[in-house]
What does this fold into?
Amino acid sequence: MQLDLDDRVTLELKRAKDNDRLLHVYLFYGGDKKTMLDEARFFACNLYCGCLECQTCKNILEDKHLNVKHISILADKTMITKEQINDLEAEFSMTSLVEGPRVYIIDGIDTASQAAQNSLLKFIEEPTYKDVVYGILIAYDINNVLTTIKSRCGLVRFMPKSFEQAKDMLANDFNLDDSFMLASLSQNINTCHELVEDEAYLNAKTLVLEFLNLENSKDAVLFYMKNKNLSKLDLTYFLNILINIYRETLTVHKLLSSLIYDKITMLKQAYSKTVLEERLQILLKAENKLKYNVVEKNILHELIVLFF
Ligand SMILES: [Zn+2]
It folds into this structure.
């Protein structure tokens, strides 16, 4: 499994652990979702083993370990709810059946209401659990986290790695199209060098270009029939790349010439800003459905229906 880590943060947490100075709750902020989440899971792995290869590590990385609880915004919600925090507290008040430290990861704590954050604060300040527990809170806007929570956590700032920066960095090693597409999938240069030869990446690349060439619903149906058995990874890459293409149609001013940028120019000319925005929202929703294990072919089918 490829993890996107922030080397500085990894080192900081490793040092704390090696020196027995780990805090019980950390607040991660400033980074992109995948990096912060990967770092949180990596932190949990290191409490157990850290090899990333054994069954324990794999279970943690795949959110299947009984002692590691990953809480994220539910598919039909826009925020972490108070119920989720209460459930966490209830679960952790019972001793775990599995030996070893327990970890909870709350992805998007900044979305939680004040009441929900206060529940969490109480959970942190007056623990009802007997096991060793670590918490990782992930915030995208640290201003929306209660000061009282911030003061109880080790604050860990990630370096921002925007898509734009990654794309520019990758342009030294890859052509414009690959830089664009790879930067949509990872901001780590080593990962990108592996990805560029990866089958799922090559599939996604073909899919994206075919998709952008579709002209009518008849073509779209053929495209669907041909690709309906695509894997989850293919679809993830496909959506991530397409999302950035649509984002660029709404933001980019300076136009470069390459396969992808020509398509972006074409989209900009063919559709109004409203349509482009709508399509971007459809893609983001599709990406979200994928995270909640909606069947791949259904997601692709819906996409075709909504686009054509
Ligand atoms: Zn391991």
Summary: The longest strand covers residues 133-139. The beta strands are 25-29, 68-71, 102-107, 133-139, 154-157. The chain has a mean pLDDT of 92. The chain is about 60% helix and 10% strand.
